[in-house]
Automatic annotation (TrEMBL):
Residues given in the record as Mg(2+) binding sites: S230, T251
Taxonomic lineage of the native organism: Bacteria, Pseudomonadati, Aquificota, Aquificia, Aquificales
Residues noted as binding GTP in the record, renumbered to the chain: 226-231, 245-251, 270-273
Pfam families recorded: MMR_HSR1, MnmE_helical, TrmE_N
Free-text function comment from the UniProt entry: Exhibits a very high intrinsic GTPase hydrolysis rate. Involved in the addition of a carboxymethylaminomethyl (cmnm) group at the wobble position (U34) of certain tRNAs, forming tRNA-cmnm(5)s(2)U34.
Cofactor dependency: K(+)
Protein name: tRNA modification GTPase MnmE
Record organism: Persephonella atlantica
Domain TrmE-type G: 216-371
PROSITE patterns xrefs: G_TRME (PS51709)
């Protein structure tokens, strides 16, 4: 399925650093390693060797460490050599050039992980987890990737597959040996299918949550001019990112900044104040603001607590109420009578961008809105590929349950239908796959992984 040549790549970025790593995998890995590094005749696996790194003419490039992992006890399942020089960009480039001269080929993105999958060291969900772990922006996204890497999704999917395969084997036995086996119990069959369906639905529910944890919450701040939207934006990001002034219409384009709330990445958007205006530039800003509001996962509708709700506030609220926004009363520090909470809305969160009062309450509300407050170390979140395959399996089982009576009289068709659902689950872990699917998955990896 793949050409078993020897590949090489830098496993660390090409930037100046204390230490770099060059990884070589394939049948010629040790042979190339011996030409590049001063090594004894007999090289022991999993032992660190200190020595000189040399080029084809025997001139010293650098000094460092070398590790050898003998197949199949390596990440790729092949012979692997890792060279640890100083993290000098010219040095690492020179080592790569010399390794290629001695017979290696520069690896494609994700090719080391692809070989690990093809050699049975990891399944497809674990391969995807490595890419997610590298790309993880927060601790919570890291935890989710580690759970995938540990095979927790694979375990659940394989349990579902085993349940379906058990049903297939019972039906097949009944078809082939009707005189020797008992007829399958209809109620047991139906209950088993419903049980698998319920577990698939539980996994499908994790997709949206996983997408947010991986990609981040799109959080838009909306309101009329001068209610403190930019001050709120600056308070979230922790510095004066947005210009704050007493003049209306100061923010004419949207601002975007990244931050984290309780380990969840957030893309925070400060939008132009929404109002009627004849100014062409401000109009464009307002149109962009309305577009960003539609794209947002959560909208913060901000008004000025010190002046109360105005007619202009209500006009804006009417435009965005379909987003079910969180109502934020800003400038709490300017309110003299803090017991006066007659703001038209019942669930206002009063905050002060100046003193950060009640910000913890606001952050909690944002996470609660997306059902992200609860966190478990064992949480599993599926990606789009898993989602599509689980959805396919779900649809097949729903079809079987719908036509259950008919299929009971046509066991061959029933067996084929359940097998189709089982094959969709097989694709998740990579039991069956195609070169196109693998190409799509591994093209998202960085070089050297």
């Amino acid at each position: 399925m793949y050409e078993k040549d020897t590949i090489v790549a830098n496993a660390t970025p090409l930037i100046p650093s204390a230490v770099g790593i060059v990884r070589i995998s394939g049948e010629k890995a040790l042979q190339i390693g011996k030409k590049l590094f001063t090594l004894p005749e007999k090289v022991e696996e999993r032992k660190a060797y200190y020595g000189k790194i040399k080029d084809r003419k025997g001139e010293i490039i650098d000094e460092g460490l070398l590790l050898f992992f003998k197949a199949p006890r390596s990440f790729t399942g092949e012979d692997v050599v890792e060279i640890y020089p100083h993290g000098s960009v010219p040095v690492i480039k020179k080592i790569l050039q010399e390794a290629i001269y001695f017979g290696a080929r520069f690896a494609q993105p994700g090719e080391f992980t692809k070989r690990a999958f093809l050699n049975g060291k990891i399944d497809l969900t674990q391969a995807e987890a490595i890419a997610e772990l590298i790309e993880a922006k927060t601790e919570r996204a890291t935890k989710a990737a580690v759970n995938l890497l540990e095979g927790k999704l694979s375990k659940k999917v394989n349990q579902l597959r085993e349940e379906l395969m058990h049903l297939i084997s019972l039906i097949e036995a009944e078809i082939n040996f009707p005189e020797d086996v008992e007829e399958i119990d209809e109620e047991t069959l139906k209950m088993s299918l419903k049980s698998v369906l319920k577990k698939i639905e539980e996994l499908l529910k994790t997709y949206r949550k996983g997408e947010i944890i991986r990609e981040g919450i799109k959080l838009a701040i909306v309101g009329r001019p001068n209610v403190g939207k930019s001050s709120l934006f600056n308070a979230f990001v922790g510095y004066e990112r947005a210009i704050v002034s007493e003049f209306e219409g100061t923010t004419r384009d949207f601002l975007e900044e990244s931050l984290s709330i309780n380990g969840i990445p957030v893309k925070l958007l400060d939008t132009a104040g929404i109002r009627e205006t004849e100014n062409k530039v401000e109009k464009i800003g307002i149109e962009k603001a309305l577009q960003k509001i539609e794209e947002a996962d959560v909208v913060l509708f901000v008004f000025d607590l010190s002046s109360g709700i105005t007619e202009e506030d209500m006009q804006i609220y009417e435009k965005i109420k379909n987003k079910n926004p969180i109502i934020v009363g800003n400038k709490l520090d300017l309110v003299l009578d803090k017991n006066n909470e007659k703001y038209y809305f019942n669930d206002v969160i009063p905050v002060s961008s100046k003193t950060l009062q009640n910000f913890d309450q606001l952050e909690e509300k944002i996470l609660q809105k997306l059902n992200l407050l609860e966190e478990a170390d064992t949480d599993i979140y599926i990606n789009l590929r898993h989602y599509e395959l689980l959805k396919k399996a779900k649809e097949v089982i729903e079809r079987v349950l719908k036509d259950f009576e008919y299929l009971l009289s046509n066991k061959e068709i029933l067996m084929l239908e359940i097998s189709e659902a089982e094959r969709a689950l097989e694709e998740i872990t990579g039991e069956i796959t195609t070169e196109d699917i693998l190409g799509n998955i591994f093209s998202k990896f960085c070089i050297g992984k």
